[in-house]
Amino acid sequence: MMTGRFITFEGGEGCGKSTQAARLADELRARGVEVVVTREPGGTRLAELIRSLLKDEREDPPCDRSELLLFLAARAQLVRNVIRPALAAGKWVVCDRFSDSTFAYQGYGRGLPLDALRLMNDFAVNGLSPDLTLLLDVRPEVALARMRRREEATNTSSDRIEQAGDGFHSRLRDGFARLAEAEPGRIKTIDANGSQDEVWCKVLAAVDAAFGATGSGRRL
Ligand SMILES: Nc1ncnc2c1ncn2[C@@H]1O[C@H](COP(=O)(O)OP(=O)(O)OP(=O)(O)O)[C@@H](O)[C@H]1O
Ligand SMILES: [Mg+2]
């Protein structure tokens, strides 16, 4: 039986991952593809609990290494219980963040050693890699403006990672760019500074270029 396709969205906060992931899922479903949309950290009961631990801002926040392990524990659970079964059943999986976020945030952002991160991540995902990764690249000021607007609209405030400061965010963006340079076949960088519709056109073009416009998984 044909296995499904695994597509991930990556990029810093406010670049539009969740917006475009939902749109891609809608489009694929309209084409008759069975789609599972999920997000990281999260997507299973245990992984969502881990997500809430990671977002807990009280007096004992995770140190860099325990943060990494919590992210990897959540990912292992998601891969084992959601992503692999869906792919094996021929479904397409659209995931909002995956391994590249670990390399960018914990590696380039926080400075943990990348070779160790790769080994540990590979253990957590048991060798699973996305077929296609869409890296939504936005200028920091554009992302910040979007996040501010979202906070005003939803009456929320930034979490721990969002408050990490300018130096962190530029290291993060550079880190994502280096990951994309290293794997140009899998990771497609999308200029995501434009409107939602403009970004969507680029996302769809990248997906169709990778898998063919029918959404059947076969190249035309
Ligand atoms: N191209 C765009 N132009 C303007 N606003 C956008 C665009 N894409 C998304 N937005 C808005 O910006 C905010 C951030 O978008 P979204 O939540 O999709 O980003 P995200 O990458 O998922 O962020 P996070 O990493 O924080 O989850 C949302 O309020 C969304 O409606
Ligand atoms: Mg999001």
A few lines on this structure:
The protein has one domain: Rossmann fold (3-Layer(aba) Sandwich). It has helices at residues 17-30, 45-54, 64-88, 99-109, 114-125, 140-154, 166-182, 196-211; strands spanning 6-10, 35-39, 92-96, 132-137, 187-191. Helices cover 55% and strands 12% of the residues.
Would you give an account of this structure?
The protein has 220 residues and is an alpha/beta fold. Helix content is 55%, strand content 12%. The chain has eight helices and five strands. Helix 1 packs across helix 8 and helix 3 (64-88) runs parallel beside helix 5. The chain is globular. The structure holds adenosine-5'-triphosphate and magnesium ion. Adenosine-5'-triphosphate (ATP) binds at residues 11, 13-19, 146, 149-150, 195-196, 199.
Q: Which structural class best describes the helix and strand composition?
A: alpha/beta
Mean pLDDT: 92
User: What is the 3D form?
Assistant: globular
* Biggest sheet character: 5 strands, parallel
Rg, Cα atoms, Å: 17 Å
List the ions, cofactors and other small molecules found in this model.
adenosine-5'-triphosphate, magnesium ion
CATH top-level class: Alpha Beta
Please trace the helix and strand order, writing H or E for each element: EHEHHEHHEHHEH
> Within the CATH hierarchy, at the fold level, what is the topology?
Rossmann fold
Distance between the termini: 19 Å
Residue share in helix:
40-55%
Low-confidence stretches: 216-220
Strand content: 5-15%
Corresponding CATH architecture: 3-Layer(aba) Sandwich
